[in-house]
């Protein structure tokens, strides 16, 4: 188990280029299973979750070749379906939630797909019903081994159908979409997720020969095709990491430029940060954040306290609510953070309270933050990262705190952020990785 030792209270300065989007690349990598032809994927982040999925694909028989630091080729022309029922797969697949998305492509191309109950962040209940109900609607038979927590779907043929998803699940939409592209007939998915990740997956599948329309909306129409070919795809920059770097700049009162952010795919993110009083400048496709001594939270027009809440796209992403909460601890003013989509993601606030933040946890979904306007700095402390997003939020808090903090369980942070300590050091942060 490794830890970070962070000496906080230092101003930073420099330029950061965000990594490829983790949530997109997990879908894209699963999609390579839909064709026997070669697929090249660029801007692949070097993080634990992505590397685990690449390993699983290799064990499944996909020919994986690393072309450069962030580019790979994949060719799924000799798949070993027996691996899916092996003890190794039951171990490997259960450690990565994103592995659920291999089921749709395997079902579509080979008529069967299996998965152990996936792990991932401990952020509350994240059910899989949407995925499997979609497969069943397409004509698959579902089976579940309760003793081994092992799921399976099988079908001799998938047939297009109209379906209304019970929730706009991003991974559920991706999984069903990848199954439907090779189904017979037309599939309509209502209440589909429309995040940039799904838009990117749809564009990739269309470049492989799929016929998907409605991309970017919550109604996807898929005309099934007999087969798909190879393609080359470039992953978008990670919007969650971009928001995290904004948090780093703001909390350390630093000047920072974030390069090549793909502004058109950031949605509400810049607006929400601006509502907190943060100055963000658009310079070409970069974000420039000037050094700010203070920032004031905007109230609503009638003077009532601002609420920042998450919602399915084009609403504000839940993955950045913890960053907003940390930033608010040093703002001027008060904000209510409402985490609607997951019930345990606010439980890291007790660590911030230990550091001196004024946060009231109203219930598992809501926290009121009373900003200190940098009149009182956070205090350094020792803490443990509970999940990826809380982990990076605590890291940001530690960078702003006076004194030396220790963050344990940083493997959680490594699951989502590429080489984070080296990149922080490049802009002047005092951070060390300590191996136990």
UniProtKB/TrEMBL annotation:
Could you tell me which Gene3D superfamilies the record lists for this protein?
A: Enolpyruvate transferase domain (3.65.10.10)
Entry-linked SUPFAM superfamilies = EPT/RTPC-like (SSF55205)
Positions that bind phosphoenolpyruvate: 22-23
Where found, per UniProt?
Answer: Cytoplasm
Residue ranges annotated for the Enolpyruvate transferase domain, each copy included: 7-424
Spell out the coiled coil positions from the record. none
Function according to Swiss-Prot or TrEMBL:
Cell wall formation. Adds enolpyruvyl to UDP-N-acetylglucosamine.
Protein name per Swiss-Prot or TrEMBL: UDP-N-acetylglucosamine 1-carboxyvinyltransferase
- Organism of this sequence: Polaribacter haliotis
């Amino acid at each position: 188990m490794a830890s970070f030792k962070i000496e906080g209270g230092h101003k930073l300065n420099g330029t950061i280029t965000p990594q490829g989007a983790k949530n997109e690349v997990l879908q894209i990598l699963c999609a390579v299973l839909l064709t026997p032809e070669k697929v090249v994927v660029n801007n692949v982040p070097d993080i634990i979750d992505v590397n685990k999925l690449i390993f699983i694909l290799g064990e499944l028989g996909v020919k994986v070749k690393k072309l450069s630091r962030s580019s790979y080729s994949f060719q799924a022309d000799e798949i070993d379906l027996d691996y899916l029922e092996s003890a190794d797969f039951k171990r490997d697949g259960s450690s990565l939630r994103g592995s659920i998305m291999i089921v749709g492509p395997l079902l579509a191309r080979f008529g069967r797909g299996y998965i152990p109950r996936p792990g991932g962040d401990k952020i509350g209940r994240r059910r899989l019903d949407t995925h499997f109900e979609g497969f069943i609607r397409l004509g698959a038979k579902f089976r579940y081994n309760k003793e081994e927590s092992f799921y399976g779907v099988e079908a001799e043929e998938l047939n297009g159908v109209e379906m209304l998803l019970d929730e706009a699940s991003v991974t559920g939409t991706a999984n069903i979409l990848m199954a439907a592209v090779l189904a017979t007939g037309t599939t309509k998915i209502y209440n589909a997720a429309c995040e940039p990740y799904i838009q990117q997956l749809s564009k990739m599948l269309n470049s492989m020969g799929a016929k998907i329309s409605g991309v970017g909306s919550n109604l996807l129409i898929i005309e099934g095709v007999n087969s798909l070919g190879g393609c080359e795809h470039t992953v978008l920059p990670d919007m969650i990491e971009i928001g995290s770097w904004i948090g780093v700049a703001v909390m350390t009162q630093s000047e920072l430029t974030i390069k090549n952010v793909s502004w058109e795919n950031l949605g509400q993110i810049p607006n929400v940060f601006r509502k907190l009083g943060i100055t963000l400048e658009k310079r070409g496709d970069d974000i420039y954040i000037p050094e700010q001594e203070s920032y004031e939270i905007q109230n609503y027009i009638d003077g009532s306290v601002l609420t920042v809440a998450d919602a399915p796209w084009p609403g504000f992403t839940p993955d950045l609510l913890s960053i907003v909460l940390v930033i608010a601890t040093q703002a001027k003013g008060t904000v209510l953070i409402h985490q609607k989509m997951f019930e345990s993601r606010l439980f890291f606030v007790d660590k911030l309270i230990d550091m001196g933040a004024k946060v009231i946890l109203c219930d598992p979904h809501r926290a009121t933050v009373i900003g200190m306007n940098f009149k009182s700095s956070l205090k350094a402390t020792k803490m443990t990262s509970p999940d990826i997003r809380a982990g990076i939020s605590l890291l940001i808090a530690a960078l702003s705190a006076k004194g030396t903090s220790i963050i344990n369980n940083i493997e959680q942070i490594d699951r989502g952020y590429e080489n984070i300590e080296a990149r922080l050091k490049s802009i002047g942060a005092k951070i060390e990785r300590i191996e136990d």
